[in-house]
Amino acid sequence: MAGETGTNATYSEDELREKLREVDEDLERLRESARELRERIGDRSDAPTDAVEMAALITMAEEQEGIVGTLEARRETLRERLEQV
Question: Whole domain around residue 22: which residue ranges?
Answer without folding.
Answer: 13-84
